[in-house]
Amino acid sequence: MEERKHTSSHYEMELQEIKNNLIYLGALTENVIRLAMKSLTDRDTQMANKVIANDYEIDKMDKEIEEKCIKMLALRQPTAIDLRFITTAIKITGHLERIGDMAVNIAEKVVQLNEEPKLKPYIDLPHMSDMVEKMVAKALDSLIKRDLQIADEVRKIEQQVDDLNEQIFRELLTFMMEDSKSIHRALLIMHVSKNLERIADHAQGIADMVTYMITGENVRHLSTDAK
Amino acid sequence: MKKNLFYKIFFSYLVIIGISFFLLDLFMRDEIKAVLTSQIETELLSYAQLIDQTSPEKASEHLKQIAQTSKSRITLIDVKGRVFVDSEKEAALLENHFNRPEVQEARLRGTGKSVRYSDSLRIDMLYIAVAMKDGQHIKGYIRLARPLHDVQSIIEKVYQYMLLTIGVVAVISLLIALFFSYRLYEPIKTMEQFTEKLRQGEPVGTIILDTADETKTLADNINYLVDELKHKIRIANEEKSKLMTAFTSMNEGVLIMNEQGLIEFSSPVLSNMLAIQYDDVIGKTLIEAFRSIDLQKAFREFKEKRVNLSREIVFGSPEKVILRVSISGIHGHPDEEKTMIVFHDVTRLKKLEQIRMDFVANVTHEIKTPLTAIIGYLETIQGGAINNIEETKKFIDIILKQAERLNRLVEDLLTISNIEMKQTVLNFESVNLRPAVNNMISLIEVKAGLKKINVRNNVNDNFPPIEADRDRLTQIFVNILDNAVKFTPDGGEIDITAAESESYAVISIQDSGIGVPKDEMGRLGERFYRVDKSRSRDLGGTGLGLSIVKHLMIAHGGRMEIQSQLGKGTTVLLYFPWEDVNKKS
Predict the structure, then answer these.
(1) Domain tally for chain A?
(2) What is the DSSP letter of B578?
(3) Which among B287, B514, B566 has the least Cβ separation from residue A23?
(4) ipTM given for this complex
């Protein structure tokens, strides 16, 4: 009896460890988005380079979590919600790692942008980044609290981000048409915007996985199916 | 419980009764039988001797009579065993009795007896035989037979009394058992209920028992223990509330983690500091609750090194908060160490530090820029340009302009410092807002006109007059409108409106300018703080405008608020208290 209790609490601890690592990775990616966007608005190349250099930390964590999950699956054979948690954890860590990569993409574009004068004051982009950061934060919140409602909120913001991306795209297009010298910078900014939009997609992916974890119901690609 | 005790006492009584009855039966039954039989024997013998002494003729005459009195059957037998007289049956019909054991015994010893079961009467019979002697010769035998049902009935009687006694004793023992079990049970039951209540944490008094035996001592001991316990609980509660009061009244937030790294306690102060919900935090790990990499790293470092550590950590949501985090262990049980984390808010401190540093740097910079220009031009003039009147005139113009800028800066600084030191005396008067606003718009009309900015006065004609120092009010408006014009793109709009709230006249100046980033909002109104450093200075500001407005509004007993949306514009809200409110304060 004592032995059994010991094992099960050990099992609980392993699960908790995976969860902790996942949230740690989440916090890392949250940070990295913030830093990348700050390096853009502050025109801080040093900060951008730091974002690029620190990507290895995210990659390392991603690998670690994946290994832990697989080990857990192989050795413990979890069932029901635990099984769903482990499988979703593998997916979520993938999403988070991709978000990290996208932040690095943004930072790389920032380094190039800073070599040239500022094209225009950033207004929509910081707004978009606010929303994206909020999405990632909420996605992680929904994971921690196992809260379906928060996961739904993430999906709601996603549409706004898409719209904003469109708007930025059109605005930059006019810049490019007016002045061919701005094309390079406008394209770089477009990249930043595109990356933000993809981060938003990944955040939604995380929210979908959380929903699946809680309900066992797969909500992914529902909108595409409907189309 | 009660039944148990009762049954135990009662059954032990019954067992004792049963055993005594069994032993009594074992020892007495045969004894009684023997005594009774020998009595009958003696009686019958004396009858036999009586018959023996009377003549046989007479004897046979009175035989029936004697048989009746002696309650026995009398048989006279001759020496050969033939029956010649019998008190009950025809002698001729009876068989030879010579071989009967009692007859044989009488032949040898003079008297003989035997107890046999009579088949005809179905009862134990006692047979007594006495030899009738004529000198040395036996001439016949007298035999008396009596059924032993007397003995049987006496024994039965004895047993009846015994059973009766047992019954009475059983009833008495039942009563005794009831009594004792009740006596024992009551105090035990009382104590049981008492301790049960205590266990469930209900308020209890003391046990009062009217017994004087061991239960009383037990109850006293329980009372004592309960008192001790209550005392201890009270002390513990006191300690707890002391701690809670300390945790809530001190400025630091406190977090206690259990040995598994899960949060066990979080003080309300911490919830305020970081805008977290208590329930969202309890039972969570540190990373789940705060999602802070730096905090997690500090915690991990503490766990590895087991040395108290202190870090400054920036928490992001929703507003940037800088906390000094101190982690230390709570030493309790050797293998389960809890951790206490104390959060000290140093945001303000850091901010003040930043402001002070910025202030010195800014003042120096702001003063140095015009001074450098002045010195530069003066040197040029000194170096020979003085001969060229045209050039010199131009330089002197520039020098004057820079000196004026320097003067303006010093004046602004003086204004702020005067207001801050409360040396500025405000001459309050009733100001009609609409004409006053029109006046102020006219002051910046030229500037606004250059950028084709439309400034609108939307204040109602009959807006109640506000209490203000007219000159200072002008200063406030000029500073705000100046900013609005500066940061609004060409062709923009500035709207001035006024609204009445319960205790304030709220004037809002809304522009369609570039707006202020969210994270810079908090620093607006700081001296020399500029959102966009290079741009603002180019536009000729001293960096003191909003700071002066802020201080003047405070001097008026009101306040300034700024709302802004990046790219959409900024709204400055001025809160002027109504006259009566002002006087009260």
Answers:
(1) 1
(2) P
(3) B287
(4) 0.80
The CATH architecture one would assign to domain B2-154 is 2-Layer Sandwich (3.30)
3-state secondary structure of B472: helix
Tell me which of B291, B295, B297, B299 to substitute to probe the interface with A (most A C-beta atoms closer than 10 Å).
B291
CATH 1.10.287.130 fits B351-420, yes or no: yes
Do A137 and B317 lie within an 8 Å CB cutoff?
yes
Sheet order of strands, B263-266 included: B263-266, B253-257, B338-345, B321-330, B309-315
Report the alpha-carbon distance of residue A30 to residue A136 in Å, rounded: 7
Which residues does chain A have within 8 Å of residue B515's beta carbon, measured at their own beta carbons?
Answer: 123
% of residues, chain A, pLDDT over 70: 93
Nearest Cα neighbor of A213 from A104, A115, A83, A105 is A83
Is the pLDDT at A144 greater than 90? The verdict is no
The arrangement of strands across the sheet holding B123-134 comes to B83-86, B73-78, B137-147, B123-134, B111-118
Query: Mind telling me how many Å the CA of B567 is from chain A's nearest CA?
Result: 6
CATH number of residue A10's parent domain: 1.20.58.220
Tens digit of each residue's pLDDT (9 = 90 or more) over A53-103: 888 889 999 999 999 899 888 888 887 778 888 888 899 999 999 999 999
Query: Considering only CA atoms, which of B365, B321, B359, B363 is closest in space to residue B343?
Result: B321
Find the residue in B nearest to A145 (Cα): B280
Q: Give pTM, 2 decimals.
A: 0.59
> Do the Cβ atoms of A23 and B288 come within 8 Å?
yes
Residue B86, C-beta contacts closer than 8 angstroms, at least 6 positions apart: B73, B74, B75, B76, B94
CB contact under 8 A, B517 and A137: no
| Beta carbons of A13 and B260 less than 8 Å apart | yes
Superfamily of domain B428-584: Histidine kinase-like ATPase, C-terminal domain (3.30.565.10)
Distance (Å, whole) CA B275 – CA B270:
8
SS3 assignment, position B373: helix
Positive/negative CA dihedral, B273, B275, B281, B284: negative
Q: Which domain holds residue A56?
A: 2-226
User: Tell me, what DSSP letter sits at residue B285?
Assistant: B
| B534 interfaces chain A, CB cutoff of 8 Å | no
**B435: contact with A, CB 8 A cutoff:** no
Top-level class of domain B250-345:
alpha beta
B566/A126 touch (CB, cutoff 8 Å), yes or no = yes
Q: Is the dihedral of CA B180, B181, B183, B188 positive or negative?
A: positive
